[in-house]
Amino acid sequence: MSNDLPQKVTIIEVGPRDGLQNEKEFVPTEAKERFLQKLADSGCEEMEITSFVSPKWVPQMQDAAELLPKTPSDLKRAIVLVPNAKGYERALVSETQAVAFFVGVSETFNKRNINRTTAESMEAVIPLVKDAKERGLFVRACISTSFHCPYEGSIDPEATIRLCNQFIEAGVDELSVADTTGLATPLEVYTLFSKLKETTGDVLLTAHFHDTYKMGLANVWSALQAGVTRFDSSVGGLGGCPFAKGATGNVATEEVVFMLERMGIDTSISIAGLLLALEEVTPHLKRTIDTPPFF
Ligand code: HMG
Ligand code: MG
Questions:
Q1: pTM
Q2: Who contacts 216 (Cβ-Cβ below 8 Å, separation ≥6)?
């Protein structure tokens, strides 16, 4: 076990985007706006706000253009997901300052998620990355199915590293490397992130874990050991990709904060504040969200 743990970790709250996109019941835009504000009040400084995807594919995100201008103004980074040129144009019209492009290592997953092969997606997205950098935007690349694919099984880590390198060469600021299915083990996580740390240089490296098999916290710990200091998580463990069969929510922000703070690692996020934020959306979900007995 490494004694070399960081003093501070950055959490990127993905609840408003990854968290809500899989929810069937539409959460009213005003409730999303209050959710964003309370997440900001709890100390979340970087957030995925929404995505400019097809409303036919993901109806929950249909209010992206309406919601983005209502983002709390004091956030360090308000990120929106963009799958293609059309989404990018829509995001620019809404004056976004930070975009996240998303591509799957697995061809089958990418086809189901974006209706393109991985190569077709990259061909479309790389010029957009360059354009976004020229405009001075913050650019994040989300790498889906970095470990396992619900349709193809295990993914060759070298294929994930190659895709990451393509984005690095195009000039992204951040890579968010995702275990879409929640199947990655702490050993796989340690191995891949240790290798990525050797090649990412100044590019921010973020780990994105889904908690389908309850390995999310173990994987956070494992990535920490590999030197990762940025984590995507979702309040209440909300989330999941509608196009990744069987996958459930992200590792829960309040649980990540609890674990890290108890080890003396500063997250600057209040668990009480997170739970207040969660109350803004749970009445609309028609299901209960269990959280541990923190208080
Ligand atoms: P398509 O059907 O191939 O689109 O879908 P198309 O280019 O053929 O266009 C068809 C119609 O959609 C046209 O309209 C376009 O204008 C419109 P029409 O002429 O028929 O009226 N259209 C759009 N409208 C709004 N916004 C757009 C857009 N693009 C086209 N951006 C498409 C391709 C990419 C649009 C579709 O597959 C899509 O929206 N996919 C999004 C899937 C998604 O949101 N997945 C979840 C996010 S990724 C994720 O959760 C993983 C992550 O968390 C990491 C991890 O855990 O792995 C990031
Ligand atoms: Mg995800």
A1: 0.98
A2: 182, 209, 210, 250, 251, 252, 255, 256
